[in-house]
Structures are given as C-alpha cells and as structure tokens.
Amino acid sequence: MNVPPPTENLTIHHRIKDCPTWRKGYDEHETSRVAAGITNGKVFRGAEDPNDVLILQDVVDMGRARAWLIGEDLKAAMQKAGVVGPTRFHFSV
Questions:
Q1: How far apart are CA 15 and CA 51, in angstroms?
Q2: What is the pLDDT of residue 4?
Q3: What is the pairing mode between strands 83-92 and 8-16?
Q4: In angstroms, what is the C-alpha Rg of the chain?
Q5: pLDDT beyond 80 at 3
Q6: Which of 28, 48, 85, 88 is 20 to 30 A (C-alpha) from 77?
Q7: What CA–CA distance (Å, rounded) separates 69 from 63?
Q8: Domain locations in the chain?
Q9: Which pLDDT tens digit goes with each residue over 4-39?
Q10: Which CATH number fits domain 16-92: 1.10.3300, 3.30.450, 3.30.70, 2.60.120?
Q11: Does the pLDDT value for residue 89 go beyond 90?
Q12: Residue 79 and residue 20: Cα distance in Å, rounded?
C-alpha cells in the first residue's frame, strides 16, 4: 500500500490595516507564491478582530518556500498591502 508523504504546511499570521486593500495585494501575489511552491492558501480573519489574519498553505518545497519568505519581493508586497506589526511564519508537517 502506497502512503503519500505528509504534506508540509506554512502558516502566516499578521495584522493588516484594511482587508480589501490587503486581499487585493494577497491575490496579486499568487503567481509568486506558486513559483515558490506554496499553494492552496486558505485565509481566515479573526471573528473579534477582522484585521487579524491567518493564512494556511500547502508547501511543495521547503527550501524554495523559506527563500521566498526572506525575499525582498514578499517584504515589499506585504508593506504595499498594509501589513502592520510583526508577521509570524510557522512550518508544520
């Protein structure tokens, strides 16, 4: 019986200024995420604080994903989209 390998996941948690502006930036950055092997994003907003955002994503290649996370492209995209405060990244299996 072939058992598929466990899926690696990336969780991103941050605060945003404005959801419509942030969502537009997030959607525009899809090609960059896919190129980094990050797919199947699911976005959640806090029930009590809609500017508290949690993103769950699948990761195909941890090395590419880690390089993407520290790249200037992501930093610029997050700033343009209105991310405020520290962002937390977490990989899990």
A1: 5
A2: 62
A3: antiparallel
A4: 14
A5: no
A6: 48
A7: 10
A8: 16-92
A9: 666 799 999 999 999 999 999 999 999 999 999 999
A10: 3.30.70
A11: yes
A12: 14
pLDDT recorded at residue 93: 85
Cβ contacts of residue 77 below 8 Å, gap of 6+? Answer: 25, 28, 29, 32
> For residues 53 and 87, what is the distance between their CA atoms, to the nearest angstrom?
10
Rounded-to-integer distance, Cα 90 and Cα 4, Å:
22
pLDDT, tens digit, 9 for 90 and up, residues 42-66: 999 999 999 999 999 999 999 999 9
Q: Is the pLDDT of residue 2 over 70?
A: no
Burial letters 3-36, b for 16+ CB under 10 A, else e: eeeeebebebebbbeeeeebeebbeebeeebeeb
Tokens of 89: 């990244």
Which amino acid would we find at residue 86? Answer: P
Token duo for residue 3: 């058992």
